[in-house]
Amino acid sequence: MSDFIAKEGIQNLHKPGEKLITTHCCYCGMQCGMHIRVNKSSGKVVGVEPRYDWPVTNGKMCPKGVTAYQTIDHQDRITKPLIKKNGEFVESSWKEALDLIEKNFKRLQEESGKDALSVFGGVSMTNEKCYLVGKYARVGLGTRYLDYNGRFCMSSAAGGFIQTFGVDRGSTLPWTELEHSDCFFLAGSNTAECHPTSIQWFWKAKDKGAKLIVADPRETPTARVADVHLDLKPGTDSALANGMLHLIIKEGYVDKEYVSKRCNNFEELKQNVDKFTPEYTSEITGVAVEKLIKAAHIYGMSPRSVVMFARGVEQQSKGVDNVRLYSSMALLRGQVGKFASGVATFTGQGNGQGGREHGQKSDLLPGYRKLTDPAAVEYISSIWGIDPSEMPKPGVSAYEMFGEIEKGNIRGMHVICSNPAVSAPNLEHIWNGFKKLDFLVVSDFFLSETASFADVVLPATTWAEDEGTTTNIEGRVIRIRKVTDPIGESKPDWEILSLIAERMGKGKHFLYNEAGEIFDEFRLATKGGKADYYGITWDRIDRENGVFWPCPAEDHPGTPTMFEESFYTEDGKANLGVVGWKEAGEVPTKDYPLFLTTGRVVFHYLSGNQTRRVDFLMEQCPEPFAEMHPALASRYQLEDGDMVKLKTPRSHMTVKTKITKAIRKDTVFVPYHWGKELAVNQLTSDCLDPISRMPEFKVCALQMEKLPAKKEGITRE
Amino acid sequence: MKSLERSFYSKSSKYSFIVVLLLFFSIWIGTENFLHFDMALMGYLISSLIFAIGLTIRMSSWLLRPATRQVIQRSLKNLRQRKYKRRNMKAILKTAFENIFLQKFIFKRGIYRGVQHFLIAWGCIGSFAITFGLTFGWMHFELVDPETYTIVVMGVETISMAAHGLFAEMVYNGLNITASMVLIGVCMALTRRIINEDVKVTQRAEFDLFPLFLLLAVTVTGLLLTVSYVLLDGWMHHYMTLVHQVTVVVLLIYFPFGKLFHLPIRPLTTAVPMNYQEEWKVDTRPCLRCGTVYSSDPQVSDVKEILSVQQFDLQLEDGSYLSDYCPACRRRIRVMKQLNNQPHLQQGHNPILTRNGSEMSGFGSRRTDDYYNFPDHVQKELEQHKEEGGNER
Amino acid sequence: MNKIMYLEFERCIGCRACQAACRECGDHDAKERNYVEYVDFTESRQTYPMLCMQCKDPACARVCPANAIQITDEGVVLSAMEEKCIGCRNCTFGCPFGIPKFDFEENKMYKCDMCYDRSKHDIAPMCASVCPSDAIRFIDFDEMQQLRRRRSQMNLVEGKKPQEGNKWEYVPEFFGVYTD
Ligand code: SF4
Ligand code: SF4
Ligand code: SF4
């Protein structure tokens, strides 16, 4: 199999003495195609080359993607296991580290039972690794406490989709069809900054006359060019969606035939949205009536439309409801399961889609099987070679694990591919949890904020040092290639997990020599499940530009467009969302009169553990800031660049102000990519969605205070 | 003077003539009426003369370029101004020392490159000085007594030294030392070109490599001469002299026309701070639009002058020139101009309309409602709400 | 090379991938040569990219006293030759578009060279390759003409062809290396 894949007629720059290795970006769900340049003689990674013939992204990359290769051979890489001795990390051998882990893991389990250990996974790694994390926790350690950082990312979308469509695939259509759509309704997605390479498809469609409706408290670069920008108050999405549904029904834009044939609950929905008149909606959301009407008509009149949303609507205590309601907009218009139309969520993490299908979630087994379903338990147990009775019961969600630590139920933790010390809400609680743990192991390739709490840090490899697959934003399974050998003594996560499992006496379940064998095992594990990967092989991925799941057999073409015939619910019909209006978990009060909302900037990825180490990205955005409207700033006598103290009921922090009219007058925005005292997540609310257990990152009540001048010069260049 | 002017085809031929004349005159003095002229150096002499002519022609055509002339003129004017004398001298000396002697800026590009260039530059200059000194007879050695030499420069005795002292050794071996410097430098340069692909991206290979190989040939043959003389008892000495002579002749003739020509024009660099920076490396002229200092008055007026001589019309409607704005504002002006959106020049703005009937949204402009073909009642409803006024930001 | 760099400012989303990518080009020494700037951040997030127009008769070269700015056979205007540049910065003031950058430390001028090692092989320059919004494109002359026609009611003075000296007054599309 060749390492360099390019279609005929595609020209790339091959420099003498270098080879190109075809792979994808390590960061977001777009999984932009790229070739990595490697020096033939030294084997060192030297740069990046666009992959012009990758159909989803056409060679395009955001600045994170362009600089991603710089994290591989980075000077900050952890190259040897680190053991904390007297509060200092000391380099040690693998044997020493594994001995220590074995000793403590066994001790804790002996003292407090199997469930004294816990595993905190992540989905910025390949399917193979994600799958193995689940198996490692349940078979290797035998604990029920397993969850992953997708709880802070995609779980509301997953919950909403499962309730509505019966299955959770992020997008019902392939991205390449977007250019043929007539209207996009984007809610709570700063696409231009968080999934930049999607923009080409929207702009292409726009060139052909497509319209764009964006719901966001900020006028993001995407909202800037929208036909209608619905500048709603944070946390009022369900009201906005109900308002839109109201208008769609009232103005006769419902595809009656489709709804009656393929959807449940239409009458209930109709009744429910009755009171959401434009005036009532406007009152709750703060969006002008005119805009609501205009948006509804533009959306309703478009023959093909796509409703898309992202963390803005999902990271709320009503995340699942929001997803259901927005999805219902597409259903009422009869758009789901058709060409160039449908519903999609923007997957945040690189393998957010794949990672959540393979049993890293506290209640799921590979292939989207439910841990509460005895048949599923039996099937997976047979693949894993364990007795069904050994299968642990469902545990608790990511944030709630820290509650268990508090209560003393969880005493040891292994954090893999995640940095909750930055990305979880209400950080002080998280930090206390980490401090309280008896034993913390972290696998990472940089010393993250979480790793600094650890007793043992194991050097993992980056994405470029191992083979594997990921599943991108569309549900397309794609191939990640090994570009270089592991740096220093680092090892791929699957190898680390296998080594520990072996020490825990479960070695016979983890006899892998290479990632490909894990892929084959989990194909089998997903067989017959909702997310069926059985028919996908690495070979097919290369030949067919990736394969969309579900793909139950090797001669099955994969499923680019979902729900063409029926839905995955029991009766095959989609369930329309019938949800009333409910306030967010925390609303502005007299003491905390403003909204605080958080999000990303284009230059950083999640907790910033990687991107904060790349020079170019740090030069562009070195620190967090509080973005606010000049009208708000002047109420507090703030000027651009002034230091401001932000306070919520949980904690406070100090950042620089950044003034722009491109945000609501009652809302302050702070990006969350920094740790310690720069982490806005110290302030965020831990109010969880009742179903998805997603914390409400996007809404909390804020108090603001100007700090005495310590102003630095404002640079305008 | 006029008649002298008319006796030549062009200015450059006139200057070449004068240069050759001066050279002969200096040889005449240096060799004390050709008394000390070394006939063995005849080949060198002729090629040096060609070198001088080539250099003169190139220099004069270079000086005739409007941009160069403008800078030279300003420098001369500046130099004549008494009240700036101190500032001028300081600026010139400082730049000459840092920029030309130490070549600091090349070290900033990398120590390796700095060392490499320093060796080649001073090796070459030293070699040239010694070679010319000897061939034009500007300098020769004279034995005062069996133990003492003296160096005669232009017929005047200067330093005398012990025949076998360290200093004397250095003087005899001057050429060998400078040649070794060049040799090391050239090897470093070639290595860099082999190892680093990037160096080749915008360099024309011949332009970049030819002079290096030439220098390599000259220094290697030159050093071999010494080797043959000292170690091999003059084996093949005659033959090698010839080869060496050929390489030197080629180098001298190539010099004015290739990459090495940067050497004689480099001194212009000393004029930069004197002309354009009141204070060392400080900008003084504010941008017309944003007020950031970005240049100095004399420089901007020079640039305008140079452009206008060459028929570049970069004047804006309001009479200002593009060079009156800082680079950032110039970029902005271009963008705004192309989007018909120049608040600082026009009243209001007028965002672009395209011919396919749609407005490009962006830059604060919105599509008008008729783009959407709303049914009439919807349009009316919208109008009504608009009148009530939404909460547009 | 009969391809053009085509800019459409309003497409730009300000991600600065073009700048990150510019650093990746051969011989760029990890310094970007293009610009992405806010029109006015207080008002809107609109940004625009800016790079060299590769003029046929470049003002920067004309104002250079050292004659250090060369044009390749393909028509690409290169950075000042390091050995010739005397560091006067005239080019940065002469250029009507504010393109050349100057490094005081290293005493050298550098500017967009259309990623010469790529474009001379007809491979798209780095910025145009990665720009997620197609604000920067590397396209055929004909395609450029077509795109321009579509947007031609811009401030192009009908019937008049931009001249080298004043092309900055016209559409952004007149830009890049092209043959008549
Ligand atoms: S971060 Fe996302 S958009 Fe950016 S290059 Fe990587 S996959 Fe593409
Ligand atoms: S064409 Fe190349 S050199 Fe020019 S701005 Fe783009 S990336 Fe930089
Ligand atoms: S890459 Fe494209 S969209 Fe991003 S800043 Fe550059 S021009 Fe703008």
UniProtKB/TrEMBL annotation, chain A:
<dbReference type="InterPro" id="IPR006478">
    <property type="entry name" value="Formate_DH_asu"/>
</dbReference>
<dbReference type="GO" id="GO:0015942">
    <property type="term" value="P:formate metabolic process"/>
</dbReference>
<keyword id="KW-0408">Iron</keyword>
<dbReference type="GO" id="GO:0051539">
    <property type="term" value="F:4 iron, 4 sulfur cluster binding"/>
</dbReference>
<dbReference type="InterPro" id="IPR009010">
    <property type="entry name" value="Asp_de-COase-like_dom_sf"/>
</dbReference>
<keyword id="KW-0004">4Fe-4S</keyword>
<dbReference type="InterPro" id="IPR006656">
    <property type="entry name" value="Mopterin_OxRdtase"/>
</dbReference>
<dbReference type="GO" id="GO:0003954">
    <property type="term" value="F:NADH dehydrogenase activity"/>
</dbReference>
<keyword id="KW-0411">Iron-sulfur</keyword>
<dbReference type="GO" id="GO:0022904">
    <property type="term" value="P:respiratory electron transport chain"/>
</dbReference>
<dbReference type="GO" id="GO:0008863">
    <property type="term" value="F:formate dehydrogenase (NAD+) activity"/>
</dbReference>
<dbReference type="InterPro" id="IPR006655">
    <property type="entry name" value="Mopterin_OxRdtase_prok_CS"/>
</dbReference>
<dbReference type="InterPro" id="IPR050123">
    <property type="entry name" value="Prok_molybdopt-oxidoreductase"/>
</dbReference>
<protein>
    <submittedName>
        <fullName>Nitrate reductase</fullName>
    </submittedName>
</protein>
<dbReference type="GO" id="GO:0016020">
    <property type="term" value="C:membrane"/>
</dbReference>
TrEMBL record, chain B:
<feature type="transmembrane region" description="Helical">
    <location>
        <begin position="41"/>
        <end position="64"/>
    </location>
</feature>
<feature type="transmembrane region" description="Helical">
    <location>
        <begin position="238"/>
        <end position="257"/>
    </location>
</feature>
<feature type="transmembrane region" description="Helical">
    <location>
        <begin position="170"/>
        <end position="191"/>
    </location>
</feature>
<keyword id="KW-0472">Membrane</keyword>
<feature type="transmembrane region" description="Helical">
    <location>
        <begin position="118"/>
        <end position="139"/>
    </location>
</feature>
<feature type="transmembrane region" description="Helical">
    <location>
        <begin position="212"/>
        <end position="232"/>
    </location>
</feature>
<dbReference type="InterPro" id="IPR036197">
    <property type="entry name" value="NarG-like_sf"/>
</dbReference>
<keyword id="KW-1133">Transmembrane helix</keyword>
<feature type="compositionally biased region" description="Basic and acidic residues">
    <location>
        <begin position="377"/>
        <end position="393"/>
    </location>
</feature>
<keyword id="KW-0812">Transmembrane</keyword>
<feature type="transmembrane region" description="Helical">
    <location>
        <begin position="12"/>
        <end position="29"/>
    </location>
</feature>
<feature type="region of interest" description="Disordered">
    <location>
        <begin position="344"/>
        <end position="393"/>
    </location>
</feature>
<protein>
    <submittedName>
        <fullName>MFS transporter</fullName>
    </submittedName>
</protein>
<feature type="compositionally biased region" description="Polar residues">
    <location>
        <begin position="344"/>
        <end position="359"/>
    </location>
</feature>
From TrEMBL, chain C:
<keyword id="KW-0004">4Fe-4S</keyword>
<dbReference type="Pfam" id="PF12797">
    <property type="entry name" value="Fer4_2"/>
</dbReference>
<keyword id="KW-0479">Metal-binding</keyword>
<feature type="domain" description="4Fe-4S ferredoxin-type">
    <location>
        <begin position="3"/>
        <end position="33"/>
    </location>
</feature>
<keyword id="KW-0408">Iron</keyword>
<dbReference type="InterPro" id="IPR050954">
    <property type="entry name" value="ET_IronSulfur_Cluster-Binding"/>
</dbReference>
<keyword id="KW-0813">Transport</keyword>
<dbReference type="InterPro" id="IPR017896">
    <property type="entry name" value="4Fe4S_Fe-S-bd"/>
</dbReference>
<dbReference type="InterPro" id="IPR017900">
    <property type="entry name" value="4Fe4S_Fe_S_CS"/>
</dbReference>
<keyword id="KW-0249">Electron transport</keyword>
<keyword id="KW-0411">Iron-sulfur</keyword>
<dbReference type="GO" id="GO:0051539">
    <property type="term" value="F:4 iron, 4 sulfur cluster binding"/>
</dbReference>
<dbReference type="GO" id="GO:0046872">
    <property type="term" value="F:metal ion binding"/>
</dbReference>
<protein>
    <submittedName>
        <fullName>4Fe-4S ferredoxin</fullName>
    </submittedName>
</protein>
<feature type="domain" description="4Fe-4S ferredoxin-type">
    <location>
        <begin position="43"/>
        <end position="74"/>
    </location>
</feature>
